[in-house]
Amino acid sequence: MAKEIIIIIGGPGSGKTSLIEYLEKKGHTCYPEISREVTLEARKQGIEQLFLEKPLLFSELLLEGRKKQYTSAVNDESDIVFIDRGLPDVLAYMHYIGDAYPSFFDDVCKEYRYTKIFFLPPWREIYTADEARYESYEQAELIATHLQETYKSYGYQLIEVPKDTLDNRILFILEHLS
């Protein structure tokens, strides 16, 4: 069996973190979202919302962190690795805010390829804001659209995960693996 690097994407509050944590509890190899850790590190340095104040720096830090996750996933002994968000997410967020980025961002997304992309659609009933999630539900919907467009622009076919219980979402994903 070839190594599978599976990405779970979706706008803020669509259930990605819960799904990744549940997959991990079920014994699957999972890598968490890293944007919160980048944000928290910036707060320690006195920058309240790095993405809002210095979006390019934030995006560069995320790109580097996600490249490291990809490399770790490739070298992981597990046949299947699930990751909460991938490299094209960085570009999707830059598109969302309308900012330009260096061409190497695009090069990285072309070079580092994932096996499958599962998309969690916006889901108002489970959406909640918190100290690290500042987007409104409407903004989360717009981000989800940018995520879909960006991943498709790199030739990925997105598999939409139905809005359902965690158990059923996990079953859906596992049934769609090779």
From TrEMBL:
This is ATPase. InterPro entries: NadR/Ttd14_AAA_dom, P-loop_NTPase. SUPFAM superfamilies: P-loop containing nucleoside triphosphate hydrolases. Residues 6-169 form the NadR/Ttd14 AAA domain. It comes from Flavobacterium arcticum.
